[in-house]
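hi got a favour to ask and not much time before my train. below you get a single protein, a line of residues and a line of whole numbers that encode the local backbone shape. could you go over both lines and see whether the tokens make sense for that sequence. a few lines back from you is plenty, here it is:
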Amino acid sequence: MYTISQVAQHLNISAHTLRYYEKERIISPNRNEHGERLYTEDHLTWLKFVMKLKQTQMPIAKIRAYAQLFLEGEHTASSRLQLLEEHRISIKQQIETLLVTEEMLDHKIASYKDLLLKKAVTP
């Protein structure tokens, strides 16, 4: 079992973020006799997945919806699958945008390097 500060440090996020995820019903940590949050390895695995979803721009509302579907049980598997497939499409669109942007940047960087090289060579 891990405390909120241990999880925050391990995942490099703030305790505030963990409390926010709890408030949004994305995670439900255990509690000890003093009411302090305790996290298991399963919580850590889930939080790592949540963080990847966030990094790929999945809105909190969709993460919450996925979490709720999971808690409802196996009969929601097709809904969860659909949600993740839709997100994968979004990720592929992000990748395409990033590749096009990288190409544009490469072109711009090359032109600046050429310009600076010409200035350095010209007396």
About this structure: The first strand starts at residue 30 and ends at 31.
